[in-house]
Amino acid sequence: MSRFPKDFMWGGAIAANQAEGAYREDGKGLSITDVTQCGPTRYIDYELEVDPAKYYPSHEAIDFYHTYKDDLKLMAEMGFTVFRTSINWARLFPTGEEDEPLQAGIDFYRDLFDTMHELGMEPLVTMSHYETPLALTKKYNSWASREMIDIFDKFARACFENFGDQVKYWLTFNEINNIFKAPYLAAGMDVRGMDDFMPVAFQAAHHVFVSNAKTVKLCHEMLPDAQIGCMLSLSNIYPGTCKPEDVMAAYNARRRSLFFGDVMLRGSYPGYGWKMMRDCGVELSIEPGDLELIAENTCDYLGFSYYRTSAFSDGDSQVFSTAGGVGHENPYLKASEWGWQMDPMGLRYTCNELWDRYQKPLFIVENGLGAVDTVEDDGSIHDTYRIDYLRDHIEAMADAVEDGCEIMGYTWWGPIDIVSAGTGEMKKRYGFVYVDRDNEGNGTGKRLKKDSFVYYKKVVASNGEDLA
Length: 468
Fold this sequence. Notes:
It is built from 15 helices and 14 strands. It is α/β, with parallel strands linked by helices. Strand 9 (319-321) and strand 10 (324-326) form a beta hairpin. One of its GO terms (biological process) is carbohydrate catabolic process. Pfam families: Glyco_hydro_1. It comes from Collinsella intestinalis.
C-alpha cells in the first residue's frame, strides 16, 4: 500500500514570467521582471525601463505562450494530476489600473486551463508570482502604498469571475516573505537609495496581509468549493552550533519567514513580530478593521518552496538567494553547482515543523535541482544527479506523511526548462524536459526528454512507491 494518500497530487510548477515569453504580445504590459537581465545582481542592478541594446532572456523564455499545448502533453505523458502556473497580472491589466481586463489575456488563460483539464490535470494557480505590473512600481512603489489593496482586489475579482469555473486551487502571493530580503522581486518595490528599507518593507507586508485577507474572503464568497492558500519560501535554517546564542539567533532568523505564515494562517500578528518592528523602529499604519479582516479570513492551506538548508550562528547576516535566506555552509551537506546545499531530511524536518505549527494542509509547490545538462550526440540527457535529488526528497516527503503531516501534493520546480528566477539564465536547468535555448537566446527551442522524465513518470504511476 502506498505511503501517500490515493488523492495525492503529483505534478510540476512554473511561473508565467519565466516560461511564457511573448512579453508584449496581445497588449500585455511590462511587469517588474521584464526589466531585469541575466545575472546574479538582476534584482539590484535593474532599471525601470527596457534597454533595447540589451538581451532579456525572459522576453522570449521558452515561448510557452505559443507552445503550451504540446508542452502540457509532455506533462500529461508523465502522469501529472496537477500543474502549477501563474497568471501574469500585466497580461490581464497592462498597467494594473485598467477598468476591465484584456480579453486576449482571458482567452489565453481559459484555453490554458481547459487544456490542463482535457489532459487530466488540475490547475494550481498563483495570482501574483513576481509579475507586478511595472507601472504600479513607477506610480506607487507598488506594495509600499495602500492603494495596491484595491488595485489587487480588482485583479483578484477578475481572476475569480473569469477562471473560477476552471480553477479549484489558488495561491495568492508567491514567496511573499521575501519582501524582507528581495523587496523588488517579491513586492515590486524600488528601495535603491534607502538607508533602511525595513520600515517600508513591514508596511508593505501589512498591505499584503490585508489584501490577502480580502482575497481569501472574496474567493470563499465567489467560489465556495475552491481552496485558497498562501505561498512562502521556507527552505530551512539550522543553528550553527548548540551554543545557546547560536540556537536563538537561528530561531529568530527562521521567524522572519514564519512571521508571514503566522499572520496569514493564524490570523494575527505574533508577539515576536511586534518586537521585530520595535527593534527596526517601525510604527505600522493600521486602519480600522484591518486586524479584524486578517483574523477572520485565513488561508486554507500552506504552499511552500523548499530547496535547501543553511546553518546560522549569532552574528551571521542572512544573504538572499531564491532558495531562501543563507547564513553559512553546513559542513555535513553537499552543494549543487550553484552552491545550494542539498538536504532531503531537511524537507521532512520542515514539513513536521510547519504541520505542528499550523495544523493546516501543506502543499510542496516548489522543490527542484538546477544544474548544467549535457545533450549527448544521440539526443539523450543522463541527469542522474536530478534523479538522485528527486528520489531522496520524495523519500523524505513520504517519511513526513508517515510522521502524520497532511500533505496535499508535490509539484517539482520546474518540469520543463525555464528561465531561472534567481539568475535569469537558461543554463541553470531544472526540467525533466530539455529546451534547446541558451542564455543568449540561441537554439531551436526543441524539447528533449531527459532520463529524469522517465523516472518521474514511474514515480507518479506508482503514487510515489517505485523509487528504484
